[in-house]
Write a structure and sequence with these properties.
InterPro entries: Ala_racemase/Decarboxylase_C, DAP_deCOOHase_LysA, De-COase2_CS, De-COase2_N, Orn/DAP/Arg_de-COase, PLP-binding_barrel. This protein has 438 residues and is of the alpha/beta class. Helix content is 28%, strand content 23%. It is globular, with a radius of gyration of 23 Å. It starts with a strand and ends in a 10-residue tail after the last helix.
């Protein structure tokens, strides 16, 4: 008889608590056993639940929309065009950071006027393409960038819609490598420099100063830094308005973290309340630009154990996925919960397993896990919360394949990015002609 067993208590605000469940012993995503996908596409692979993507957007926009806040998905978290389309069909806007991401968002059917262009190093060509496409807003991060936006807009006979990205000097209390608004950060413009820059820019017909933006970091679980940053932004808006400036929009950034490792995850109602408390009622058009929160939990990466060998304190399981496929553990010491696709052979106290990949780097190490039971070659493992910054950050280091991405919807699945192997990679290395230089 079929029996559904929840694997772990659903974290607070989990948009799709039954996204992964075990039925008849098999780990399934929606109605599809993950082993079935492994048979179809081989391992390793990424799988995303369309239902969880949709439910995530609905939950977040449902929490913030009553406070007049629009949601723009940060494309960098998962830029697969079919993932973007799931959000686009629901009316979600997009936050992009490159011409490539703009092309993806437009191709996914997102209207240009729903797209915000963030990023500290936009090139002149990217700025030109953004203005030609008619994007909603360009978030400018330096006086030098503002000059390039002005020059391109003048050349095109446009008035570019510009928000200044502010560095409010707030510690996001997250991993140092994903903290973006401390005084020494490369992002944004120091809050003290904004009034003069905004006032000067507002005088220029080629610049349409629409407002301000802020983004303090990523995987933020303690919401207090959001309150500090947005309160500072509210103060800045008041100061600018008192000085006679028009400030119509405020982009509150992304950064909302997802739970795991014993943390239940932030409370959406509290997040929305902080927005209302700090910047509500000011007549501002508000938006947030979350990446991770909308897609991390919708995805898993599935890998196969190639070999096991005894280790010091933990047995090694060498899996066929590596840091090139999922680099978050190597880069940020991130931990992704792991579920075996079949029930563990032995429950209770077994030797812990250290899951490592085949790459010739000691940092190719996903961490040490209890409770997986003794693993054997051929065993399949699902790394959870891999829908954000997984495939999007992958590479072909060690001449490894780019692994397939699969979208699950109900009882069906389909490949949404096929495996890119060495044959195709070698094609890219066809030499061009020698060019004389002097
Ligand atoms: C400007 C900007 N907006 C939004 C995001 C999305 O961040 P997260 O995925 O943590 O929500 C990022 C990445 O940190 C970013 O740099
Ligand atoms: N890529 C990071 C987050 C940084 C987001 C971009 N500023 C992660 O996987 O957690």
């Amino acid at each position: 008889m079929s029996q559904t067993i929840a694997l772990a208590p659903a974290p607070v605000d989990d948009p799709a608590p039954d996204l992964l469940h075990r039925r008849d012993g098999a780990l399934r995503m929606e109605g599809v056993p993950l082993t079935r996908i492994a048979e179809a596409v081989g391992t390793p692979f990424y799988a995303y639940s369309a239902q969880a993507l949709r439910a995530g957007y609905t939950a977040l926009s449902g929490a913030v929309a009553p406070h007049g806040v629009d949601v723009c998905f940060a494309v960098k978290a998962n830029s697969n065009i079919h993932v973007l389309s799931e959000f686009a069909r629901l009316g979600c806007g997009m936050d992009i950071v490159s011409g490539g991401e703009m092309a993806r968002a437009l191709a996914a059917g997102v209207p240009a006027e729903r797209i915000i262009f963030s990023g500290v190093g936009k090139t002149e060509a990217e700025i030109r393409a953004a203005l030609l496409a008619g994007l909603h807003q360009i978030n400018v991060e330096s006086p030098a960038e503002l000059e390039v936006v002005a020059a391109v807009a003048r050349d095109l006979g446009q008035s570019a819609p510009v928000a200044l990205r502010v560095n409010p000097d707030v510690d996001a209390l997250t991993h140092a490598k994903i903290t973006t608004a401390r005084k020494d950060s490369k992002f944004g413009i120091a809050i003290g420099e904004i009034p003069a820059l905004y006032a000067a820019a507002a005088m220029r017909p080629e610049l349409n100063m629409v407002g301000l933006a802020v983004h303090i970091g990523s995987q933020i679980l303690d919401l207090a830094p959001f309150r500090r940053a947005w309160a500072a932004m509210a103060g800045l808006v008041r100061d600018l308005r008192a000085a006679g400036q028009q400030v119509g929009r405020l982009d509150l950034g992304g950064g909302l973290g997802v739970g795991g490792d014993g943390h239940s995850g932030p409370d959406l109602a509290e997040y929305a309340r902080i927005i209302a408390d700090t910047v509500g009622g000011m007549g501002l058009a508000l938006n947030v630009e979350p990446g991770r929160w909308l897609c991390a939990r919708a995805g898993v990466m599935v890998a196969r154990v190639i070999y096991t060998k005894p280790g010091d304190g933990a047995d090694f399981a060498i899996v066929d996925a590596a840091m090139n496929d999922l680099m978050r553990p190597a880069l940020y010491d991130a931990r992704h919960a792991v579920e075996p696709l079949a029930p563990p052979r032995q429950v209770g106290a077994t030797t812990p397993c250290r899951l490592v990949g085949p790459i010739c780097e000691s940092s190719d190490d996903f961490g040490t896990y209890q409770g997986l039971g003794p693993l054997q070659a051929g065993d399949l493992l699902a790394f959870r919360d891999a829908g954000a910054y997984g495939a999007a950050m992958s590479s072909t280091y060690n001449s490894r394949d780019l692994i397939p991405e699969v979208l699950v919807d109900g009882a069906q699945f389909r490949v949404i990015r096929r495996r890119v192997g060495i044959d195709e990679a070698l094609q890219l290395e066809q030499p061009g002609p020698w060019q004389r230089a002097g």
